Amino acid sequence: MDRDGVLNKVDIINGKPFPPDSLKNLEIYDDVYSSLEKLRKYNYKLIVVTNQPDIARGKTDFLTVSKINAYLYHTLKLDGIYMCTHDSTDFCSCRKPRPGMIYQAANDFGLSLTNSFLIGDRWRDVEAAQNSGCEPIFINRKYCEKLPTGKFLIANSLQEATNLILLGNLNERNI
Q: What percentage of the chain exceeds 90 in pLDDT?
């Protein structure tokens, strides 16, 4: 799953989402704890793949983002967090919508991507899922930006995304 806009709230400026700038400003959505617990109960791997280009842009530092990731990892009992610190002009293989982080997580955890989900709140997340063979679930936070295209499921929250997964797919899959 993606991090900002899925697990934690973002600041909306001119209709665009921005991640928290410190651990002090991190606010986890209310439905996250119960949603992740439900998924964990059915043996889903809870893995975050997150773009953090503000590091490359000099708007935040690696340590600050790492503290936020560590807090989420321990507090939410995640299985893993994969982070791309590059900007879109770096043309790396890990920045979503490219599937590099997803491939790395699949390799590290022995996951079948065709039996996995990726939950995100931006077109990049949906496209990364499509590029890797995961089932995309788009949480529509109604940002003023490009919308995803192609085949994907739509939810309004992590709780709704979790319900889509569990109601339709009680076989073992991963996110």
A: 94
127: number of Cβ within 10 Å:
22
Average pLDDT over residues 46-73: 97
pLDDT at 119: 98
- What is this structure's pTM? 0.93
CATH of 11-168, one of 3.40.50.1000, 3.10.20.540, 3.40.640.10, 3.40.50.150: 3.40.50.1000
What does the domain layout of the chain look like in residue ranges? Answer: 11-168
